[in-house]
Write a structure and sequence with these properties.
alpha/beta, Inosine-uridine Nucleoside N-ribohydrolase, Chain A, eight-stranded mixed β-sheet, two-stranded antiparallel sheet, 39% helix
């Protein structure tokens, strides 16, 4: 009888770990160019099962409209249409950061995260890839803390020196909702992995190489090329012709998909947050 129980457990475990990774992508697509490439990469990754795409606000950008999540949803919907993945849900997040943990505004995105997370478990968790601000995932956990045990969160943000464990919070995604990020960092029950800007900045695409490959993808390729060519970077005067692009978000997606070539270590959280260990890609 004991042998049967052990065999059954091992069989169930094997089935779970051989399944595709269920993922919600939470992203500020309209903010930049790299988000589009990260989304396309995730949607076409054989190891992933994308159960939904949600949009987060990026109100600190000089290009920000009154509803940045809506801008991102429009782009997400275009990508899903071009890939003929129209059945994948596309949800909009709240258009403002969290102002107080005592005053939380729900959104389609946060409600969707809660709904989906309830379908998973600690042994078979739902992965949330946060490529923008933490507004939606923080809102979801605050509204329903019970989902914490059912999810793994991967966050793109923060500057981090792995040698000294020094954190620099003056980073775009971090600035867009510092209260939400602090809540995530302080949550001792949350499985959190960070892809820092320090690490992800090293992934750079060259236009000539990328465009030569994108031409093969017809309308989708042309859509990505147009976005690359038309976007004007407000944060730098370097490379005005957009010959190269830092693929911050792609770095995180690829690290999750390719565990054999990505490396992460355990680090203490930043000063002034609850002291605990989190994983950070190095």
């Amino acid at each position: 009888m004991a042998f049967i129980k052990i065999f059954s457990f091992l069989l169930i475990t094997q089935i779970i770990f051989s399944q595709k990774v269920p993922i919600i992508i939470d992203t500020d697509t309209a903010n930049e160019v790299d988000d589009l490439f990260a989304i396309v990469g995730a949607l076409t990754e054989p190891k992933f099962d994308i159960v939904g795409i949600t949009t987060s606000q990026f109100h600190t950008s000089p290009y920000a409209s009154n509803n940045t999540p809506l801008e991102s949803k429009i782009i997400n919907d275009n990508i899903l249409s071009l890939l003929d993945y129209k059945l994948i849900p596309s949800l909009i997040g709240h258009n403002l950061p969290i102002s107080s943990l005592d005053s939380i505004c729900n959104s389609e995105a946060s409600d969707f995260i809660i709904k989906k997370a309830k379908l998973y478990s600690k042994i078979n968790p739902l992965t949330i890839i946060v490529l923008g601000s933490c507004t939606n995932i923080a809102t979801a956990i605050i509204n329903d803390p019970s989902i914490t045990k059912n999810i793994k969160v991967y966050y793109l943000g923060l500057w981090h020196d792995p040698e000294t464990n020094y954190y620099n919070l003056n980073e775009f995604n971090t600035r867009n909702d510092p209260i939400a990020l602090n809540f995530i960092l302080n949550n001792e029950d949350l499985d959190l992995t960070v892809m820092s800007a320090t690490t992800s900045k090293n992934l750079i695409f060259n236009r000539s190489d990328v465009f030569s490959k994108l031409i093969e993808f017809n309308e989708l390729g042309l859509y990505l090329i147009k976005r690359w060519n038309s976007f004007k970077r407000w944060w730098t005067e370097v490379d005005k012709k957009n010959e190269r692009w830092t693929m911050w978000d792609v770095a995180l997606v690829e690290a999750i998909a390719n565990k054999d070539i990505s490396f992460k270590d355990l680090f203490d959280t930043p000063v002034l947050t609850t002291k605990r260990k989190i994983h950070i890609y190095t």
